[in-house]
Design a protein that fits this description.
The protein is of the alpha/beta class. It has twelve helices and ten strands. The strands form two sheets. It has an eight-stranded mixed sheet with strand order 5-4-3-6-7-8-9-10, sandwiched between helices. A two-stranded antiparallel ribbon has the order 1-2. Strand 7, helix 5 and strand 8 form a beta-alpha-beta unit. The longest helix is centred in the C-terminal third of the chain and has 21 residues. It is elongated.
């Protein structure tokens, strides 16, 4: 992967997602040698270098040395970053962005004409190599660029390709999705405590139940309705609980929450200040 003297990858942004991708790449390669990281906080940059054995550089050096630039900053910071990065990028680079809600057109407008951009929506289970990343090509990115992005992301989980028009929905569903599950698990642990169980036991019970249920969903090939009905005996405890969930509108609340996340993703994509 060498073009005009550039090779390899630079990760711009050392937050949770940036570090998750970095850690996955280091685990796959067995070394952080050749990986570059740009992080504006000197303390954080030192932490990443020490933890993963990577080299930390500034934006100009990253663009000069790496052909693939992975932008892993918050969407609110993207315009400032692009303003700083633009003068150092050429159409020979590949820019991969994991900034939530930010369309490729907005990134392309700040970079030299013809620069290939791939938009990605990852999620935090990438930290444990169980992430879901969804990728879309910008106007100047082809199948070869999507292949590169997929190879970059596959060490930390699964990868899917979608038209960019579906990315806001992906952001609302899988990008924010882990938080919904954590919220439900938190509530279930609280319920266990209310019923007299120690917190540690309640947490162990729910975490293992969540894990086992996820594996069943993945591996059984059955619809969630079938799996739920298999646990729901007539006149039993589960149907009593399901009745309360429906009575309190939990299903409708989840749908409304995901719709709100989708709308916020659209709004972030329109922000230019």
């Amino acid at each position: 992967m060498t073009t005009a003297g550039r090779s390899g990858l630079a990760i711009v942004g050392g937050g949770k997602i940036g570090e998750a991708l970095l850690a996955g790449l280091v685990r796959r390669a067995g070394t952080g040698e050749g990986l570059l990281v740009v992080e504006r906080s000197p303390q954080r940059a030192a932490e990443l270098a020490a933890a993963h054995g990577v080299t930390t550089v500034d934006l100009a050096e990253a663009a000069a040395r790496a052909r693939v630039l992975l932008i892993a900053v918050k969407p609110q910071d993207i315009d400032v970053l692009l303003g700083l990065l633009g003068p150092h990028v050429t159409a020979e680079h590949l820019v991969v962005s994991v900034a939530a809600g930010v369309p490729t057109s907005r990134i392309e407008a700040a970079l030299p004409a013809g620069t290939p951009v791939v938009r990605v929506m990852p999620n935090t289970p990438a930290l444990v190599d169980a992430g879901m990343s969804v990728i879309s090509a910008g106007a100047h990115a082809g199948e070869e660029h999507l292949d590169e992005a997929e190879a970059l992301l596959s060490p930390v989980g699964q990868v899917r390709r979608v038209p960019e028009s579906q990315q806001d929905a992906v952001t609302a569903l899988s990008g924010s999705g882990p938080a919904y599950f954590f919220f439900l698990v938190e509530a279930m642990i609280d319920a266990g405590i209310l019923l007299g169980l120690p917190r540690t036991l309640a947490a162990d019970l729910i975490v293992q139940t969540a894990y086992g249920s996820a594996v069943m969903l993945r591996d059984s090939g059955e619809h969630p309705v079938q799996l739920r009905e298999a646990v729901t005996s007539p006149g039993g405890t589960t149907i009593a609980a399901i009745r309360e969930l429906e009575r309190h509108g939990v299903r409708a609340a989840l749908i409304a929450a995901i719709e709100a996340a989708h709308q916020r993703s659209v709004e972030l994509g329109r922000t230019t200040d």
